[in-house]
Amino acid sequence: RNFFTKRTKELKPAVQSAPGWKLFGKVPPRENLQKDSKLIQQEYEARTGRMCKPPPSSTRRKNIEFEPLSTTALILEDRPANLPAKSVEEALRHRQEYDEMVAEAKKREIKEAHKRKKIMRERFKQEENIASAMVIWVNEILPNWEGMRATRRVRELWWQGLPPSVRGKVWSLAVGNELNITPELYEIFLSRAKERWKSFSETSSENDAEGASVADREASLELIKLDISRTFPSLYIFQKGGPYHDLLHSVLGAYTCYRPDVGYVQGMSFIAAVLILNLEEADAFIAFANLLNKPCQLAFFRVDHSMMLKYFAAFEVFFEENLPKLFLHFKSYSLTPDIYLIDWIFTLYSKSLPLDLACRVWDVFCRDGEEFLFRTGLGILRLYEDILLQMDFIHIAQFLTKLPEDITSEKLFTCIAAIQMQNSNKKWAQVFASLMKDNKEGDKNHSPALKS
């Protein structure tokens, strides 16, 4: 009668600390995780009454909700003496269930082994392609850059992604150095930034000859410190004490002194970080300054509302051309491009996409210019068109702000390739130029998010 008395008393606190028990293991308590894109989709389906597809019906044994740690524990050959013995039918049934479970486990192991082999084969193939491409870039293309960069063969090879070993060199050549910045000039602005950091740390008062401008610069430099810790936090290399923390701080600080008219704007740290991962310090600064001097980046980082609206209007022209159903769906909710495009353009997709995929987007962006940034945006919308068509305003905005982490370069670039950047025989540059001509009035009310 008191067989389990002591045991149940001992287990009471443990039972209270967890939501429940399963066979051979305790269910861990739930964690408050940040919502990802799949949770957003499921939440929307639950709210609108659309149920997720149920799992396919199967046999009773395939619906087991646990993974047993010991298969032999499921079959008791002999029950305790104080319990009735198994009947022959029950013993046979248990044996059959055990054999089925073992067979399923073997099938699963074989399937997982095949999957691992397939992944390894694809990885080896990819590495071989990268190695062969690297030889072509190093021996043929880079020595004859000006003559070969625009050829069809090089452009096709470029589209497939640059080998990591030559990526930084190709980016530098493609971005160029119209500003004629030298490594010596970088050192000058870096030393100036260090002097200001030192003076800011030594004096807490703002009673300076420059008055409010010093306070503004101080706020800008403080923002750099805050943003560096939030740049690729999962990599840890840019966190305080990491190998690239001071380097990123130096490049961004030097830029604020080089371009006080622009200063530091949130989002710059991601662009500088990607360049630092692929280039030496001075070269990263040169590429960074020249990249931010391009018309599109300058418009966004200076928050030139008028120019930003032109870019959004041009984007919508090609959005309607390529994805008319989704365009009308967005229009019905008054969902304007600035809601999702600003973050994508500010960081050149380095914050929104996995880093390796973002680098491949950068590859073609360096080849094709600003047009490819908006083409990539349309490619993302095309990739998730079916999902987005089922969502409302809030869930679309949440989904596009935090894209799925399992997005692959093959799927995305297939969708990007399907996007036609031509409208009524006009290419991106022509459409944008025509918008610039007749932009004297009326555009300021187009995008609510930019009225401020």
Give a quick summary of the entry.
The chain has 452 residues and is mainly α.
General description of the model:
Helix content is 62%, strand content 2%. It has 452 residues and is an all-alpha fold. The protein has three domains: 70 residues; 118 residues, Helicase, Ruva Protein, domain 3; 140 residues, Cyclin A, domain 1 (Orthogonal Bundle). A two-stranded antiparallel ribbon has the order 1-2. Strand 1 and strand 2 form a beta hairpin. The chain is globular. It starts with a helix and ends in a 15-residue tail after the last helix. The N terminus and C terminus are likely disordered.
Structural class: mainly alpha
CATH topology of the largest domain: Cyclin A, domain 1
| Major β-sheet annotation | 2 strands, antiparallel
CATH class of the largest domain equals Mainly Alpha
Number of separate structural domains: 3
Give the beta-strand count.
4
- Helix content range of the residues, please? 55-70%
Mean pLDDT: 81
Strand content range:
under 5%
What coarse outline follows from CA principal-axis ratios? Answer: globular
Whole-number radius of gyration?
29 Å
- SSE succession: HEEHHHHHHHHHHHHHHHHHHHEEH
The CATH architecture of the largest domain can be named as: Orthogonal Bundle
Number of helices: 21
GO biological process, one term: vesicle-mediated transport
Keywords: Coiled coil
Domain Rab-GAP TBC: 161-369
Protein name: TBC1 domain family member 12
